[in-house]
Each structure stands twice: as C-alpha cells, then as structure tokens.
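Inputs:
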Amino acid sequence: MLNKTFTAVTIAMAITAGGAVAEDIDIVFVGKNTGNPYFDSLTQGFVEACDSIACNFEFVAPATADATSQIPFLEAQIQRGVDVIAISPNSPDALNQVFQSASDKGIIILTVNGDITGNEQYRDATILPTDFTKVGADQIEMVGSLIGYEGEIAILSATTEAPDQNFWIEGMNATIESDPKYANMTLVATVYGDDQPEKSTTEMEALLSNFPDLKGLIAPTTVGIAAAAQVVQSRGIADEVAVTGLGLPSEMREFVKDGTVGGFQLWSPYNEGWLAAHFAVGLKNGSMVNEVGGTFEVPNLGTITINEGNSINTQSALTTFNAENIDDFDF
Amino acid sequence: MSFLRSIFMRRETGILVMIVLFCIAVGFVKPQFLTGQSLRIILLLTPLIMIGAMAQMLVLVARHVDLSIGSILGFSAMVVGLMYRDFPEIHWLVGFPVAILTGAALGLGNGLLVTVFRLPSIIVTLGTLSLYRGMTFIISDARQINRSNIPTELKVMSRTSPIFDIPWIILIAFAVALMTYVVARHTRLGRQIYALGSNPVAAPLRGIDVTKVTLIVFALSGALSGLAGILYASRWGFVNPSNTGAGFEFQVIAAVVIGGVSINGGVGTVLGTVLGVLLLGCVAAALPLLGIAGSTQNAIYGAVILIALIIDRSVRQRGVADNSKDIA
Amino acid sequence: MTDTKTPTREMAPARPAWHVILVRPETMTLVLLIAGVIGASILSPFFLDVNYILRSFTLTAEMSIVALVLTMVVISGEIDLSPAANMALSACTFALMQDVGVPLPLAVLIGLGAGLAMGALNAFMSIRMQLPSIIVTIGTLILYRGLAQIIAGDRSIRLPDSFIGINAIMVFGVPLPVVIFVIVALVLGLVLGTTVVGRKIYQIGTNQAAAHHAGIDANRIKIGLFLLLGVVSAAAGIMAASRLGSVRYDLVAGGELQMVLMAMLGGTYIFGGRGTILGTFLAAWLLVIVSTGMTVANLMPAIQLTVLGILLIVAIIATNFIYARTQR
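Outputs:
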C-alpha cells in the first residue's frame, strides 16, 4: 500500500508540477480532543509554519477522546477536499476504513505524535516527537538519578492499552533488568490512572499505602505525573518519594519550584507541528520524498531522517526539565 | 415498635452497617485501610460529591431531577478560572461568591424553564447539560486553565486545615451538609419542599407557592454546584472545559440513591445522603488498594446502585409504596 | 339526549382536518429539519451532497434504530437509559466469542442473547419489582458498561474481514444501515399506529390504571417492550461492530443521551402516552443534518454542544405547547 501511495504521490506531484498555478496546500490537523493543552502547543507549531510557507491550516477535534469520535471529523475533511490530513489518532484501528477512503481520494495521511500500530499501511508517514525506543531507558535513568540508583520504584501509567505508554514501559522493564547500573533498583508495581486526575490520585495513594518503602515513581503521562506530584506535595513527602515522568512544563512548574519534583522529561510538541507542516507541504509540492532512508531539511530543525516504516523523529532524545531551565519554556 | 427496633429499621442504619462491614472486610486484607491516613484519603475523595449530593437531594425531594449539575460545576469553575487568569489582581476569595452566583444563575435558568414552560425537569436539564457544557467551551476558547493560574491559597485549601488536620475543603463539605440539614428539617422552606415533593397536586391547596419553591430549589442546586466548581479548582489545581464536572451527575445520583432518597419525591434525609457518599468514597478508595483494576470499578458502582434499590424496596414500609411511574 | 346548558366535551367543535394533520410535534420536527438543511447549506458549500449526508447518517444509524424502539418504551410510560451500554456489552460478547473460535453465526446469536438477558434484567427490576425504571436503568447502564470493560479490557477486538463493512453495502445507492433504519421505522410505525397492540401501548402510557381496568395486561406488554429493546440494541451493537471493524468497551459511549434526545426531538412525551415513530424518524435525520452541517463547516464542538442543547430546549417547549393546544 505504501508503494502505491508513493507512486500516486509521485504522479500527483508530476501533474501539479506541470500544471497550473500552485495553490496553497490545505492541511487539517485532527487532535485527540479539544481542551487538551498539549495539542495547543502542537497546533501552534502548525500555525506558525503555515504562516511562513504556503499552506492553509485548520485545527479540528472532537469533544471526547474515544476511539471513534474522530470519524465524523475525518469524513467531513474528506468531503471538504483537503490535501493533507494530520491526525493524532485516538485508536490504532478504528480509523482504518476512513483512512482508506481518504487515500483513495489522494489525500496524504500523516499520523502525528503517535502511530496506528499494526495498521501502518493505512497512513503515509508518522511524525513522532522523539525516538520512542529510547524513552524507557531515559526515564529509568531519570528516576535513578533522583533516588541514588537504589530502592523501590513504581510506574503510574495512563490506560492499560495505551500503545505508546506500554511500549515505553516495556523499554523501562528491559533497561532495569539488563543494565547493571540499575541493579539495586526494583520495579515493584505498575498501575493505571486512565489519564484521569481522580483515578490517578487514588492509584498513587494506594501505591504509597501498599509500598511504604517506595522511593521513586515514573509517570509517563502528563495527567499522571501531575496527580502524583500533587499527592506527594499534599502529604509533604518529597524527600522520601521522587516523582518523575513525562510532563508539561506549564503544569509541573509549580512542583519544580517548590521542590516537590526534582526533574522530569518531555519533548517539544511545537516542533512536531512545525516539522509536520513542512513535511506535508514538501510532499505535496514535490520538494520532499517519502522514502525510507531519505532525508530532508526543515528550517530550525536541521536534517531529518525518514526511518524504518516511514517514521520520523522530531528530536532524537528526551529533553529534561528541572529547576534550572523550567522557566525557559512556555508550554 | 420499640425505640431500638425503629432505629434498626431505618434506612440510614442499613447504610452505616454496610459501610462498617465493608471497611472491616477490606481491613482484614489490607490493614492500612483502617488508618487515619486512609480516612483522610477517603474524605478527600468525597467533598465535591458531598456538596453535589446535597443539591441533588433537595431537587429529588421536590420530585425533580437535575442532570446538569456537572455542566454547572464546569461552567462555574471555568468562569472563576478565567477570572483568576485574566484578572490576577482580584483577591482570591472573590472566586467563591462568583462561583456560587454563577451556579445559582444557571440553576435559576433550569428552574425558569421548568416553571414558566411547565417542562419536565429531566428533559430540561438534559438540554442544559449540553448547553452549559457548550458555553463552557465557548468562554474558555476550548483551552484549559493551568495550575499556574489558580491562586495558591485556593489550592492549599485542599491540604491545610484549621483543626485536627482536616483540610478546609472537607470542612466546607460537611458544613454544607449541616446547612442542608437545618434547611430541610427546621425551616419552612424545607417543609414546603418535602410537601411539594410528596404531593405536588395538593401543594398549592396547602398554601405553598409552587413556582417560588421550585425556583429556589433549582437555584440552590445550581449554587451548590457552583461551589463544587471552585472547590474542583482547589482540589485538582486546574480547570478543563471537557473534563471538569463530566460524569459528576451520575456519581452524585448513585450516592443519593444509595442514601435512600426517593426518585418519586418527598422522601430522603441528609444523614442518609451523607452516608451514601461515604460508602461510595470507601469503595473508591478500597478498590485500588485491593489491586482491583479500574475497569472493574464501574461495574461495581452499577451493581451497588441496583443492590441498594433492591434492599430499599424490601425494607421500606409498604405504606409509602409508590405505584405511580412519574418521572420527576 | 339530555338537554344541557353547560358545555360538554361532545359539544366542542371538531378540529378541522388540516389542524389535526399539521399541528403536531412531528411538524415541528419537520420544520426544524428543513431549517437545518437550509442553514447547513448556507454554512458550508460542502454540505449539500446526498451521498455525503447518507454516509454521515450511517455513523449513527445503529443508535437511530434503537431510538425507534426506545420511543415505544417511553410511550408506554417507562424509560430505558441502558441501550447504549447494552450495545457495547452485546458487541463485546459477540466479538469475544468469535475471537476464541466460535463460528460467526453462533457468536451473533450469543450476542443477541446477551442483549435479551440485559433487557430481561431491566424488565424484571422495573416491572416485576416495581422499581422506578429511570433509576434501574441508570444502574444497569453503569453495570453493563462496567461489565463490557471487564470482559474486553481496554483493548479493541478485531473482527474478520468478511464481517466488516456493512455500511459499504449499497442498496440502490443507499447504504444498507440506512435502508434497515427505514424498514424498521416503517414496521414499528405500522405496529404502533394501526395494530391493537399499538393502541394498547398508548393506553398504558396515558393511564395505566384505566388500562388495567379495561383488561389490558400492561405488565406483559411492558416486559415485551424491554425485551425487544434489549434484542434490538444487541443487533445494533453488532451492526456497529461491522461498521467499525473492531469492538471496544466504550462503543457508543454517551449514546443513551443521544437516543433520548432523538425521541424528545421527535415529540415523544416523557411521561408516556404520546409520541410517534415518525417523529423519532424525522428527529434522527434532524440530528444528523445539524451535527454534520456543523462538522463540515469546521465548527468546534463548543458550538455543536450549545446548539444541540438549545435545540432540545426549543423542541420540548414547542412540543409541550402543541400538546397543550391539542388537549381536549
């Protein structure tokens, strides 16, 4: 399917290249849901990119992030005849049929921030924030550095089936078992807060009750890490339990400043949007080619490589936030 | 019947027994459940539901339903959040009257639709559930209010306390329960609400201004939901247009039904409702401790509601049996 | 004939035929529908495309079919808020069965059986045990959704390719789910409007006691309706599974509100006794027009929620007004 798309894109490019005046490309980004601060930043990247290159950008998102809520929005975009659909999918497979209809009409499909695992043939390329295979190891190192590389740690994740989190957790397990540097650390539990503050809080409280010797917690989800930090802050036990994970600077700033959290990690959603917009426009007007192993240039980000499975990493490793740099970011 | 027997026959005793048995059972497996820390956790889970349950109790007793309390909570929280973000120089305490008045206004809107147009409250509040949620998105431009915009003093209310290490937020919730008790039992308004609920047709004949009482009940429900809204910001530190208050109405109805409030009006006590809220809080706190997956929680809530209904039907005196299928 | 000076009902002039045909809630729905089409066309040039509208309808066709049966339940004086959860649990049961190797036709039967069982539980608690159906079905809605979560976990269960794509099957250019919806509407409309059973349903809803005295076994009919709703919900759930290609526990989450919305927009009276299949049929189209129109114009959910809320409130005000005017 990728080959066919590639051919289709080449032909389309040839036609448009030899055709009439090049119009602005219509890009739409379908977010997971509205009211999600993470995507505000990502969208900003798109918006500012489209200010500088020739594209028209719209952002739409459903009210809730369930698996099928994006379908009517995708149908609407196909009806509107957009050129590129960029999407942060709420489900790995519920959207396959809709993606197929879009591809049949020549629309380029890019999954942004997460991929449709197992169904990659339905999209043209995926733009990931960072190299997901390194996240697990980086997070173990992060928590290790905060607890002196010894003691009990636990993981507070999102939903039980969240593909990205599960992939990273696998990486965490592999790292802690194989790397001798972490030989004195034990992973005692993995619990799920379903990305809801109430649930995440009760799970954190339960962890603290069930494992009184807990030294560190990794929450690879922005809702989880905020909830866990809040529990630690309200109980005043920042000296005994180190909370870290993946968080948004805007949400974690307070916890870093008052010492509840020593450090946490993430990447730049803004850069993802910026890159995605440039890539989309490049594909559509022929200046970039969607080929594994190929590279392309993006202003401010340098040379980007297209990896196995048409997967693109915006940055190569996680960014660490702590008291020194927390004020430098505005997302 | 003897005094002791009458106590045992009461619905509230039944719930209390359920709570005690449940806690002991969980305590066997996880002794940490019976500590002061655990009690604190349970209590911290409940203040918002407690306040919402008081509101819903009054509405149900008056033989109505308010399904929009979650959306009122969300809207009020957002109004306050926007105020904090865009006007940081305003004193943080001003948020309270703002939230309560906003909620009251929305509740009054519900009340007007019910009284002026004579519409069934279940449908009206179903409509306002959507309407108020949509308005929340609009005024916030679909953006959330971040932790940094919420005043520290407000957030700290969920942690610090004036006495016995009980956070302010819990004290407020119990104060609301106490006030509701006083209104329900010892004021004319309270008596009128009960009278209206048990027999709406006869109410005007007894000198009750049905319109006025109905408007007051809905306005109160809205006001309390508004209070719950600002306390949400205190408890969680942020306000999100999609999530804040979503699903709140179902949790509250569950607590109220377990607490013995009748959907047909005229029956219900504050004590029962408080116990219902506490029971749900215990269950919510116990499940993760026992390692029961979150996915099972909902099924358990549903089962608890059904069991409570069945017990209610078996135990309650047939004298108050209600054959009419009116949906308030 | 008695010589009477006081006016009696028999003496009131008959309503002119045009009045009877036009002044009814379904007309209001039709008017809103036409207004919706016009409004949506103005809002976006991409809207007025028959194939697109039909394709959009298929996204909610399953819920619309269930809403038709729900209308009958409401007319009979009850309510059921659990059908959406039923759809999910039946679909999950079906998907799991075929996933472990049970042949497809048998798996479908098991799924339908599950739906029937759920309808039976609702019927048992609401009718046999005489509990208020609104609370019972809120409890079962939470329970069924929770059970779906338990058996399916958080993952999606894939279906074999041979089963997928019911919405791609065209009958004279119209997607199959839409055709099924129209056929079901015709059948139910005829049953409700012309048969004895249909008349009985209206009578039960209008005044159950009187119907009883007239020799109608209200309980049996209501139980039958709950069972029918259970099976149809299951079938709809399996249809949705075919459309999506995979099943998750959160299938049609929040769908119960949408179904009630359809019934209300179609002029069904929440307390029973009045309402038509035609009304719900038109309301289903109205909802599709309004939401598709807003989505294709890239209007954010904020506006959509607000519009839906206002629509519902306007619709019930109009419905009430019409019923009051045509009351005799």
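Remarks. The mean pLDDT of chain C is 88. The beta strands of chain C are 157-158, 170-171, 174-175, 246-247.
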